[in-house]
Design the sequence.
């Protein structure tokens, strides 16, 4: 298991290097130069050359990249060109919001998908199965932003009620209120993903339930619940965990829309504003941070294989 | 100095009443400024009219500023937020009784202003006893002439709007409450522009201590509100300034300026009564008006005059738009009356430009435009004939850049323009641009053939003339380079008498109509709404939100 974990960890390093190169290059490929914007839109200076030099953007790209990587390795993610605020400060303030929303969304997905998927598999071709499959298709078909908009708009029109938006409560001000404001966006984001996970759960469970060892366990007199949850589900779990891990970028991306609609101060609105202002250090910092998180979540998924399946550990 | 008339002690809101005489001349303004100052300075007010209520928290959908430095940015988001806390020497009248484009100035931090006969020297008397906030680094010290000098010099050095102060040669402070500004040439918009939020007075200590005014912590002033809390991405909370120089104002305890970005969420919160104002200027979408009246019948809905005109800008420096016949043919293709009557359902302006129709004191009626009025008629046959004479008998294709992010209403207007032009054989090929590209390119005249979009908002007529037509100006999107027009544009800035200035602005309008350097398309009135318990709110074409809300109260 140690060698397996170490190998996976070492694979992360070249991935992060490539990600850093990509992030650095892609930010500069966005049409519209920050210096032009600062001068022409916001009048942040008098001369383009002077401003470019002041921002350190007059040096060769390779030199800028090396400087940036050096800063990142020292824990400095850069400073906003517009506000002079360290990007790490804003990320630290906003990341918990996005992370909470993502984790709650995953929880919602799992709370819906696992029981429904298992039920659909155990009672294949029953009414419950058909209902579950219809739900999955429906959840996949309904865009989360549409669902969120309906949740916000319709009650206000018919009942003069709207979710409490615009007065964000920090965790330190009350965990109950803090979590409460994430329920609706997490539901919107989680339902769509629940459809995908439910289908995968059902498919894998159907496959596993037909295996000889399941039949043997049942023949030996083990209870249905123990067989399904203790043996079948564990063996069906690897593809399900892979799906969840692979969906992390989706949860982050989806949270941008939910943050926008529900007025949550997460990473989404922050990075969108940074992009519209061509705030290179902030865009780089956020992208690198999110990329590192995705890499970390994939690493966790890889490591969980070992925990779920002993054969992987011996590999 | 002009004498300060003796006036009865009254409520500061009556300053607005006293000055509610529509547009006034610059010299008239100076007199009024002095009089109004005397009223405003009088403590111990007596309310004669409907009693305003004190207290309450106003929840307002707002915009998060990119920076808090009013000189480091021409962003209107910055001006909106800054105006709650930082104040200007003068301000415009505010309240429910005033037209959205009534820019009658009244004193704010100044008491009065005197101008020399040649229009080059302004002597401004400051209001005594105005104090900065009671916190470091200003610690409640008195506002003095040195603050004004510092702020003006900083604006001249750093602001993108610096040219709107004219050519300032020097600023003197003869005593602690007097500022004298010397201009190289007379500059008619000078006093008006001192009332713009980007000209707010700043305390020098903040820059000395913090290095700049970019951070929220630097938002320290002497206005009606103080910044109580700023949560990035969430809201800014402004609380009543207990040391505000106008006794009794503001009525509100607090204003919560919420950074909710999604439009449908903003409107839902408003429908549900969770916010009092659904946008930074209370706007609601025109398309939602009917459903809104149905869901919230008690909420006031007001159509009001907006100043952001729409223009189709041409590359008049090269073919085919160098030929005035082509531009005039484009103008003839548009049926302005039908546009307003049918598409805008009567709630809009045919406005042929360049002065926006709501600026009534400057606007020349179409009937007085002379020869130029001919090109404002709808005459497709003549348009086709003129295009043929200009060398386009089979019509033409024109690439037109545009930023679709302005919203669906704008996209529809552009499509309507394209449809109108198609009737005379012109195919308008719409090129949608990304915001960054548009704002640094097309918005500043960097396009190949044509570009359509709304203009920036200016409160002084000069903004719609000098910026649009003067050779070399960055907002001269049509690349106009017309010596005769330049002479007139420079002259209107120098005329110290309002009537003389009006004459030359009339001439500019006639000349511009004849040359058709821009095609001004009709535009809708804004439509706004607010909660019924908000009183004395008046829509305004200005980013001075602080002054607009200091006279508002809640009557729940």
Sequence:
């Amino acid at each position: 298991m140690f060698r397996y974990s170490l190998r996976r960890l070492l694979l992360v390093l070249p991935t992060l290097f490539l990600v850093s190169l990509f992030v650095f290059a892609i930010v500069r490929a966005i049409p519209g130069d920050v210096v032009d914007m600062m001068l022409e839109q916001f009048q942040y200076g008098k001369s383009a050359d002077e401003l470019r030099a002041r921002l350190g953007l007059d040096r060769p790209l390779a030199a800028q990249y090396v400087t940036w990587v050096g800063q990142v390795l020292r824990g400095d993610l850069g400073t906003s060109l517009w506000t002079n605020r360290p990007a790490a400060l804003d990320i630290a303030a906003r990341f918990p919001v996005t992370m909470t929303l993502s984790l709650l969304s995953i929880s919602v997905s799992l709370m819906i998908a696992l029981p429904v998927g298992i039920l659909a598999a155990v009672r294949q071709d029953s009414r419950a199965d058909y209902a579950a499959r219809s739900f999955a298709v429906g959840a996949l078909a309904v865009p989360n932003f549409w669902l969120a908009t309906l949740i916000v708009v319709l009650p206000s029109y018919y009942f003069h009620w709207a979710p409490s938006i615009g007065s964000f409560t920090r965790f330190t001000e009350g965990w109950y209120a803090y979590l409460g404001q994430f329920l609706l966006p997490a539901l919107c984001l989680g339902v769509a993903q629940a459809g995908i996970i439910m289908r995968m759960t059902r498919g894998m469970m159907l496959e596993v339930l037909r295996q000889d060892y399941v039949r043997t366990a049942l023949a030996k007199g083990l209870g249905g619940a123990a067989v399904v949850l203790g043996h079948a589900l564990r063996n069906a779990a690897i593809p399900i965990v892979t799906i969840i891990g692979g969906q992390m970028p989706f949860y982050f991306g989806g949270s941008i829309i939910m943050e926008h609609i529900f007025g949550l101060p997460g990473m989404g609105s922050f990075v969108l504003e940074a992009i519209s202002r061509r705030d290179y250090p902030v865009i780089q910092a956020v992208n690198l941070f999110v990329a590192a998180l995705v890499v970390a979540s994939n690493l966790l998924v890889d490591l969980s294989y070992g925990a779920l399946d002993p054969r992987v550990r011996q590999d | 100095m002009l004498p300060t008339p003796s006036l009865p002690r009254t409520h500061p809101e009556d300053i607005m009443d006293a000055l509610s005489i529509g547009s006034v001349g610059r010299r008239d303004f100076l007199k009024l400024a002095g009089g109004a100052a005397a009223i405003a300075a009088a403590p111990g007010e007596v309310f004669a009219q409907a009693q305003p209520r004190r207290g309450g928290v106003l929840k307002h959908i707002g915009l998060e500023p990119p920076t808090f430095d009013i000189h480091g940015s021409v962003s209107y988001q910055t001006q909106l937020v800054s105006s709650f806390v930082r104040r200007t020497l003068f301000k415009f009248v505010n309240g429910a009784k005033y037209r959205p484009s009534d820019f009658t100035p009244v004193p704010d931090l100044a008491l009065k202003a005197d101008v020399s006969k040649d229009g080059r020297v302004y002597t401004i008397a400051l209001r005594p006893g105005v104090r900065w906030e009671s916190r470091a680094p200003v610690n409640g010290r008195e506002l003095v002439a040195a603050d004004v000098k510092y702020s003006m010099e900083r604006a001249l050095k750093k602001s993108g709007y610096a040219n709107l102060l004219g050519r300032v040669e020097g600023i003197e402070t003869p005593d602690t409450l007097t500022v004298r500004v010397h201009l190289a040439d007379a500059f008619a918009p000078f006093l008006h522009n001192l009332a713009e939020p980007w000209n707010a007075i700043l305390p020098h200590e903040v820059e000395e201590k913090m290095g700049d005014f970019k951070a929220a912590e630097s938002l320290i002033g002497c206005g009606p509100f103080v910044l109580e809390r700023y949560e990035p991405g969430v809201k800014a909370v402004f609380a009543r300034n207990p040391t505000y120089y106008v006794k009794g104002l503001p009525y509100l305890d607090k204003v919560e300026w919420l950074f909710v970005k999604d439009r449908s969420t903003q409107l839902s919160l408003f429908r549900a009564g969770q916010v009092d104002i659904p946008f930074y200027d209370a706007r609601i979408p025109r398309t939602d008006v009917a459903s809104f009246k149905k869901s919230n019948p008690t909420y006031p809905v007001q159509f009001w005059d907006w100043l952001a005109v729409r223009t189709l800008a041409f590359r008049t420096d090269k073919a085919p738009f160098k030929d005035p016949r082509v531009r005039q043919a484009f103008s003839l293709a548009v049926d302005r009356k039908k546009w307003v009557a049918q598409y805008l359902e009567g709630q809009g302006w045919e406005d042929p430009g360049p002065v926006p129709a709501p600026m009534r004191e400057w606007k020349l009626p179409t009937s007085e435009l002379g020869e130029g009025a001919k090109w404002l008629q709808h005459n497709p046959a003549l348009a086709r004939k003129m295009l043929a004479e200009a060398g386009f008998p089979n019509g033409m294709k024109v690439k037109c850049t545009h930023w679709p992010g302005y919203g669906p209403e704008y996209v529809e207007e552009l499509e309507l323009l394209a449809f109108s032009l198609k009737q005379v054989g012109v195919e308008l090929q719409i090129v949608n641009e990304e915001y960054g590209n548009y704002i640094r390119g097309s918005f500043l005249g960097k396009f190949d053939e044509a570009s359509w979009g709304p203009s920036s908002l200016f409160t002084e007529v000069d903004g719609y003339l000098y910026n649009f037509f003067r050779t070399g100006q960055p907002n001269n999107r049509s690349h106009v380079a017309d010596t005769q027009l330049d002479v007139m544009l420079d002259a209107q800035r120098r005329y110290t008498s309002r009537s003389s200035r009006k004459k030359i602005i009339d001439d500019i309008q006639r000349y511009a109509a004849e040359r058709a350097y821009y095609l001004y398309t009709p535009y809708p009135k804004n439509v706004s709404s607010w909660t019924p318990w908000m009183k004395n709110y008046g829509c305004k074409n200005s980013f001075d939100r602080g002054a607009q809300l200091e006279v508002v109260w809640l009557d729940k």
